[in-house]
Amino acid sequence: MTTFLAGRRRRLVRAAIFFVAVGTLALASRPAGAAELPTAPGTDRGSSCAALARGSSLPPAPSRVQREWIDRCVRLNQIQVVGTHNSFHVQPSPGLFSLLTAFDPLLAMSLEYTHRPLTEQLELGMRQLELDVFADPAGGLYADPVGQQLAPGPPVDPGGALLSPGFKVLHVQDIDFRTRCLTLVACLTEVRAWSDAHPEHVPIMILIETKDDPIPDPGLGFVVPLPIGAAELDALDAEIRSVFPASQLVTPDAVRGDHATLADAVTTDGWPLLGDSRGKVLFTLDNTDERRDVYLDGRPSLEGRAMFVSSEPPAPSAAFVKLNDPVVDSTRIRALVAAGFVVRTRADADTIQARTGDIVPRDAALASGAQWVSTDYPDPSPFGTGYVVRLPDGLPARCNPVLTWAGCRSLLLE
């Protein structure tokens, strides 16, 4: 009993410090000349959180208390993180890369990058990952790539994982097949293990691109992928949920709540608070073609689904939007972010910026307010240009530059 009372006293002291901090902020006035910033949907201007939005700074208090304040006032969409494009990707082996270079130098150049293992990327501060998946319900469809036959390299699958049923993770069948994790379940299990060990992380977004396009076969026996249809998309949801329990997922149902549509929810009540979404993962579907339409069929606001889809407002499913060109789409991205939507954009593509050192797209992406900025270069470019994409000070997350509250402190986000 004594231990229980002592613990309760400590909690009461913490609560008292918190409410003193909140009271101080509520009384603070907006500094002269402070810029008016967009008000994020879900922000209650009559609450103590409004003081932060008006430009107040966090009052002196232990960082733990300030962190609690941030968790109660900052929402999932009010931060910005950097992530990786094709997070699983490993460059083709030297022999196959030489063949590809002889056949199509530009294609080979676009494949000349290798990411760290997913765990290392997360340790580095990446909070958005991307996985390409191919359906393989019987197993074995991608176990013997033609490229490995033509130019043998290190074993592709010494453990036999490609023989098991389920979605496989790779970039292009038979040609660009080396990967940090061979199956979707293996990739997600690795992410979950890291998440379980770091339960205070900001939400991780995982972008899933389903693939079923055949490639021209000159008679070598290239694999023809299975079409992605309703059954495959249901199986994809099931594989996600086989690894992550509902308590670790930010789902469309959770965000929509009692609203009629997702679009209505994110533009009124807003996204979940950071304190309610720490340690969780949010999945999005990259495809914007008929596969998205099939995924939405009968579920206009993604009822019961595990993933968000890229939909432009005023579609009922609009909550997440993929706009990959931060230079051309900069104005559109900023408008969507200010309206309450979440956006993924890219800082670079096809190794071009890493080779030339062009930082214009990178800087435009970071300035746009897009919540997820994707890159192939979280580490400095190997091409000698010094190109790299990281947030200032190497933080895993920062206060969103479009939705920033003046009192928000990036250091406290994670």
Task: Explain this structure.
This protein is α/β, with parallel strands linked by helices and 414 residues long. Helices cover 35% and strands 11% of the residues. The chain is built from 16 helices and eleven strands. The chain has helices at residues 2-27, 49-54, 63-73, 94-103, 105-110, 118-124, 146-150, 184-197, 230-243, 252-256, 262-267, 274-277, 290-296, 330-339, 352-356, 360-368; strands at 79-84, 128-134, 168-169, 204-210, 249-250, 281-285, 307-309, 320-322, 342-346, 372-375, 398-399. Strands 2, 3, 4, 5, 6 and 7 form a six-stranded mixed β-sheet that branches. A five-stranded mixed β-sheet has the order 8-9-10-1-11, covered by helices on one side. Helix 1 (2-27) crosses helix 3. The longest helix has 26 residues, at 2-27. The radius of gyration is 23 Å and the shape is globular. It starts with a helix and ends in a 15-residue tail after the last strand.
Helix content: 25-40%
The pLDDT mean sits at: 89
Largest sheet: 6 strands, mixed
Binned strand content: 5-15%
Characteristic key phrases:
414 residues; 6-stranded mixed β-sheet; 11 strands; alpha/beta; disordered N terminus; globular; 5-stranded mixed β-sheet
Concise synopsis of the structure shown:
By secondary structure, the chain is an alpha/beta fold. The protein is built from 16 helices and 11 strands.
What's the SSE blueprint?
Elements: H1 2-27, H2 49-54, H3 63-73, E1 79-84, H4 94-103, H5 105-110, H6 118-124, E2 128-134, H7 146-150, E3 168-169, H8 184-197, E4 204-210, H9 230-243, E5 249-250, H10 252-256, H11 262-267, H12 274-277, E6 281-285, H13 290-296, E7 307-309, E8 320-322, H14 330-339, E9 342-346, H15 352-356, H16 360-368, E10 372-375, E11 398-399
Parallel strand pairs: 1-10, 2-4, 4-6, 5-6, 6-7, 8-9, 9-10
Antiparallel strand pairs: 1-11, 2-3
